[in-house]
Amino acid sequence: MAKRAENVQYRGKVVEFPFDNPAEENVPDESLHEHLARPTTERTKRLKARCRWKHAAAGEFVEDNVKGGIERMRLITEAHKQSDGKPEIIRRALGLANILTGTIVLQEDELIVGYHAENPNWIPLYPELSYMAVQDYIQSKYAPQPVEEAKEINNYWTKHSLQGHCQPYFTQEELSQMYQVSTMEAPSFASGYNSIVPPYETVLEDGLLKRIELAEQHIREARTQIAAPYWNADERLQLLSKIDCWEAMIIADKAVISWARRHARMCKLVAEHFETDAQRKEELLMIADICQRVPAEPCKGLRDGMQAKWFTYLLCHAIDRYASGYAHKEDKLLFPYYQISVTEKSFQPMTHQDAVELVECERLKVSEHGAGKSRGYREIFPGSNDLFILTVGGLNSDGTDGCNDMTDAILEAARNIRTTEPSIVFRWHPKGRAQTKKLVFECVRDGLGYPSIKHDGIGTAQMMYYGRFSKNNNGATPEEAHDWANVLCMSPGLVGRRKTQKTRSEGGGSIFPAKIMEITLNNGYDWSYSDMQLGPKTGEISEFKTFEDLWEAYRAQYQYGMSMVIRAKDISRHFEARFLQMPFVSSIDDGCMELGIDAMELSEQPNGWHNPITTIVAANSLVAIKKLIYDEKKYTLEQLDDALHSNWEGFETMQRDFANAPKWGNDDDYADELIKRFYEDIISGEMRKITNYSGGPVMPTGQAVGLYMEVGSRTGPTPDGRYGGAVADDGGISPYMGTDKKGPTAVLKSVSKIDASTQKANLLNQRLSVPIMRSKHGLTIWLAYMKTWYELNIDHVQFNVISTEEMKAAQKEPEKHGDLIVRVSGFSARFVDISTYGQNSIMARTEQTFGAEDYEFLGVNL
Amino acid sequence: MAEVKKRAFDMVREPGTTKPCLKCKWGIEDPTDPSVGQCTSGRTTEGGVWKRLIHDYYNTTCAKFTEGEVDFRDHV
Amino acid sequence: MAICAECKSFFSVPDNADDYEPGKGDCLIEEKDEKGKYWLSKATMGDSVAEQCKNFKPKKVS
User: Fold this and answer.
1) A121:C13 CB<8 A
2) Which of A250, A644, A818, C24 is in the most buried spot, having the most CB atoms within 10 Å?
3) 3-class SS of residue A510
């Protein structure tokens, strides 16, 4: 039966922890999460039961019938060949228009329609981005058919693709160093990976017909200006590319309207010729009406808003170009339509429960959304389809509480339907209303792993900071700075009609301090994975006479990697602006529309960042080396070197000494002082010396996703006592699994020592005790924890609330634990769809229980 | 310091081999370049997978070659 | 020789549609797998040869 939390002696009394829901006393720990799903309606229960998951792990798709589709490849290639000689931006618009003539899909029961490939089990591929990513599919069991045609198409794109354009600016050695994903993540031009924050607001508020009118007006004005006496080359030649940009917007938007209306026609035809259920016929005709009107016209109600948003999402994230993510502030975006439909009931009238059902439908659409991404990205988000992260909460631009009834509908739907995606970020501010925070708690307590929590004040201040570097002096205003969402898992970016991040080249991608640590000790050479030089020659270990010598060698290795990865991103950006324009996205960005500049080229709000992943392995290693070699002189670097090259075999005592050296996350001054310096001086300090395309600094976003598993498997033994091939640390600033031994408040104290303003973001994974969180005191304790977290000015925290018993049961009988969700890092995953190696790493995370000292520090009244 | 034994000491590049890492159950493609591979045969006592890079995935072989696939649950 | 316009799955595109072309239609077919029913719609010219199409079913002649 269920395990209760142990009683605690606190402030003179014995505190007991009965379950908040007494019925849970009789629910076995091993199966708790199988009892928690409660879909709002029979429809969403059916939709979940038949969901076409597209989870991947270890590079493979979990479900059997997922494969690459050929239609998108075929249509974009056909258009590219036919448009030869036209301006590149027009070719891009014609490419999109041709793709949108392809097959469209409707499934039974759904309320939100639209899919991005020619079969609901398939995924589109992107030869115009990375020919290597497509080649990986072609030589796998997921090959699009007919495969010979796919090979021919991919060969065509070898020189025309983004990868083909960018590669010549790197040596073969540099490409090999990046592509293997051990010290650095591969550049997006080679993986095809991307992210974007679409200006959804413009679509919902204006509709595309208005955007077409605006573009037409700009063209008329530009042509008038061109033809006017007296010709002035400096002023007017620049209008040519603007005219092309606006023309491309018109082509793209007309194609999108036509595509959406094909869905209307399809729904009507299915209602008339196939559907026999009267209620479903009515629904299909309602959906037909919606698709006929949106996104051509402004949205009038909540169903309109959801459908217009979904179409926009498909275009920006899958049809025009692949992009990971689901970045938007969903409550802010949809609340006006919630008010119309639910509160006022003046258009598409519905109850709050209907709104929750609609959000559940949205969650299930996302859960079916497969990403045609490269093998690397099929490895690093194990147990999920891709990263889909929306943001809610925080403050409005006028400083009022941003939580509203739409926020609650989003959270209730997440709690009820239990899917891994989309993940949710909650922006925490003291002004946030209690009823919404209770829903956040319920999601966390139920083990969803989200919402992950971001510090609202830190994010808003950061948007203001970056705005100062705007190249056209049009960075975020104080009001706009409040309108931000996480672009992917962790890094804030503006949302709204303008100034949003449009490409991963602006911010994203990773660097791996643990592997850098390894090669620093080997003069830049990688002996354990690739048997090649991965970094500059910064000295043999015999040359590191002082700890500072080692420190500076590390700095040089890190800077080498950082300069290369930002160079890769900006070269990619250079070519994206020339060959990978996004005229549909440009049409819905007010800045692009006003200035006649494509979204890949225009940058008004810099947002440069890069992700250090596996930092704590490096940090703990530096602490152990300083203590045992330089301070106590118990060992020499040469002895350490021998031990590492033997994977500690024959050096067991030494391994224990290094493993027992002070570790991050225990409020230990020795470790924390050095690690603070590491984060601020090297991890951030070196990164901030770099200026990116947008003219701003690049700042570190510490996190992990599943890369801590992948890079761990490519990293040899390290001086923190870790063995070769073992996982690395699982979050940007999270203690290494099992080494945080002084309780949850000691972790907070350690983390708070790092100056958050020197970092873009830092992911903190914490695993909290199931019996404490599910007890009658759970909410009180958690709120006190969150208050302290906020006051300590910590950027982020996310939670696993899951028992080891249940995870072990799921390993034994995965078919009985399909609803068990865990927080990996930055995203949530179905536990049974993760490799055993990954599952074990999650089980190894310290399950934090709270003692009296912790309660005292948090100031809890129990 | 003793000479370090390369981890990839047993991998041999044999152009045209009929037992390439591409077909081996322990081989998976590189995350970026499918002509490069990752060998997942290295299993640690702690339950980890300690990989090795295979520079030429189509033309490298070793004595551990076994045709087939490993379930995703058994590698990373 | 059978053509797409003669098939039950062919529905002419209305002349007020954004993607109207003379002779163009939607080829709309119903599929089913272990996850349920779905429909696929693809633009088709009515005079396309349908001999090799596995989904071809002649319209009933009224």
Assistant:
1) no
2) A644
3) strand
The label of the residue with tokens 């927080």 reads A823
pLDDT at position A703 over 80: yes
Please indicate if any CB of chain A lies within 8 Å of the CB of B11: no
Exposed, middle or buried, A232 (CB in 10 Å: 0-12/13-18/19+)? exposed
Q: Who's near A815: CB < 8 A, 6+ residues apart?
A: A832
Contact A169, A196 (CB under 8 A): no
Nearest by CB to A266, from C14, C18, C39: name it. C39
- CA separation, residue A79 to residues A95, A131, A255, A592 (Å): 5, 18, 14, 24
What's residue A265's pLDDT?
98
- Please name the residues in contact with A1: beta carbons below 8 A apart, sequence gap of 6 or more: A25, A26, A27, A28
With CA atoms as reference, the chain A residue closest to C34 would be A50
Considering the entire predicted model, what is its pTM?
A: 0.97
Q: What does the DSSP assignment read for A738-791? A: T---S-HHHHHHHHHTS-GGG-SEE--EEEE-HHHHTBTTHHHHHHHHHHHHHH
Among residues A466, A517, A536, the alpha carbon closest in space to that of A760 is found at A466
Partner A contacted by B29 (CB < 8 A):
yes
- Judged by a CB distance cut-off of 8 A, whether residue A158 touches chain C is no
Taking every pair of Cα atoms in chain A, the longest distance, rounded to a whole number of angstroms, is 90
**Residue among A436, A405, A445 nearest A779 (CA):** A445
Q: Looking at the complex, does the CB of residue C15 fall below 8 Å from at least one CB of chain A?
A: no
* pLDDT for res B2: 44
Residue A397, classified by CB atoms within 10 Å of its CB into exposed (0-12), middle (13-18) or buried (19+), is middle
Query: Distance, in angstroms, between B47 CA and closest chain A CA?
Result: 7
At residue A666, what is the residue type? Answer: N
Cα of A808 to nearest chain C Cα, Å: 29
Answer yes or no: do C17 and A105 touch at CB < 8 A: no
The answer to whether the CB atoms of B50 and A724 lie below 8 A apart is yes
How far apart are the C-alpha atoms of A209 and A588, rounded to whole Å? 11
pLDDT digits 0-9 by tens, A199-254: 999 999 999 999 999 999 999 999 999 999 999 999 999 999 999 999 999 999 99
Q: Is C15 exposed, middle or buried (0-12, 13-18, 19+ CB in 10 A)?
A: exposed
pLDDT in tens, A565-587: 999 999 999 999 999 999 999 99
- Would you state the pLDDT for residue B44? 83
User: How crowded is residue A656: how many other Cβ atoms within 10 Å of its Cβ?
Assistant: 12
pLDDT in tens, B2-35: 455 567 778 999 999 999 999 999 999 999 999 9
Domains and CATH numbers, chain B: 12-75 (4.10.490.20)
Q: Are the Cβ atoms of B36 and A180 closer than 8 angstroms?
A: yes
The C-alpha angle with vertex C50 and arms to C46 and C56, in degrees rounded to 5, equals 100
CA distances from A86 to A164, A241, A273 (A): 20, 12, 42
What is the DSSP secondary-structure string of A653-680?
HHHHHHHTS--TTS--HHHHHHHHHIII
Q: Which of A757, A751, A761 is nearest to A700 (CA)?
A: A761
What is the CA angle C19-C23-C25, rounded to 5? 55
CA distances from A394 to A325, A391, A407, A454 (A): 20, 9, 11, 9
CB contact under 8 A, C38 and A269: no
Inspect the interface and report whether the beta carbons of B74 and A140 lie closer than 8 Å: no
Asked if A190 and B33 come within 8 Å (Cβ–Cβ), the reply is: yes
Q: Using CB atoms within 10 Å of the CB of residue B53, give its burial: 0 to 12 exposed, 13 to 18 middle, 19+ buried.
A: buried
DSSP codes of every residue in A794-813: --EEEEE---HHHHHHHHH-
CA distance A501 to A602: 10
Are β-strands C24-33 and B27-29 bridged in parallel, bridged antiparallel, or unpaired? Answer: unpaired
Q: Which chains have 3+ CB pairs within 8 A of C?
A: A
